């Protein structure tokens, strides 16, 4: 069976972002994946119980400690409400979805405090970015899932083709053994 890819629901076209918008992808690689029925969408923040729209949230440097991220940070929305538990619940849900479909690749929305995989907003709500990853990305990576963002589709596709080839090879070997 073809490898599936876990994708951020907002990239898939669902209006689930904090501002009630989507970030629908039109790239040819994405469209090919869609035609091949590979995409499984999930919005961790909504799955964790947060509404649409909602206040934006960012990782804030502070006295808390997030063992998952390994840094003294807290996750607050722009009104100062701690939303870590909702984000954590959503990240665990995304992991369950990925495991149900035996997923090894995720393509998640860049810069998000849940889905980002290289840069996140710096906690000042001023649009400044710092190195860092979102909570769902951290949970998926810890489970061995490769996380890309929407600007890394070619890299994700290369890995996908490798996985497809190795599963075809495995299937051929099993067929050969069965025929003996
Ligand atoms: Fe998109 Fe992820 Fe934010 Fe949901 S949590 S709106 S999927 S970036």
UniProtKB/TrEMBL annotation:
Q: Name one Pfam family in it.
A: 2-thiour_desulf
Entry superkingdom: Bacteria
Q: What is this protein called?
A: Purine nucleoside phosphorylase
> Where does this protein come from, organism-wise?
Pokkaliibacter plantistimulans
């Amino acid at each position: 069976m073809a490898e599936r890819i876990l994708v951020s629901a907002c990239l898939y076209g669902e209006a689930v972002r904090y501002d009630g918008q989507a970030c629908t992808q039109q790239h040819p690689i994405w469209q090919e994946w869609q035609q091949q029925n590979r995409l499984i969408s999930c919005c961790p923040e909504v799955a964790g119980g947060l509404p649409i729209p909602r206040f934006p949230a960012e990782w804030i440097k502070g006295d808390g400690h997030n063992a998952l991220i390994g840094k003294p940070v807290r996750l607050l929305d722009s009104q100062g409400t701690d939303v870590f538990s909702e984000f954590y619940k959503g990240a665990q849900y995304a992991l369950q979805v990925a495991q149900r479909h035996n997923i090894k690749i995720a393509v998640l929305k860049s810069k998000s405090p849940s889905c980002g995989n290289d840069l996140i907003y710096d906690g000042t709500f001023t649009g400044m970015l710092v190195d860092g990853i979102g909570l769902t990305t951290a949970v998926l990576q810890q489970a061995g899932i490769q996380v890309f963002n929407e600007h890394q589709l070619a890299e994700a596709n290369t890995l996908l083709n490798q996985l497809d080839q190795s599963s075809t090879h495995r299937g051929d070997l099993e067929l050969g053994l069965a025929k003996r």
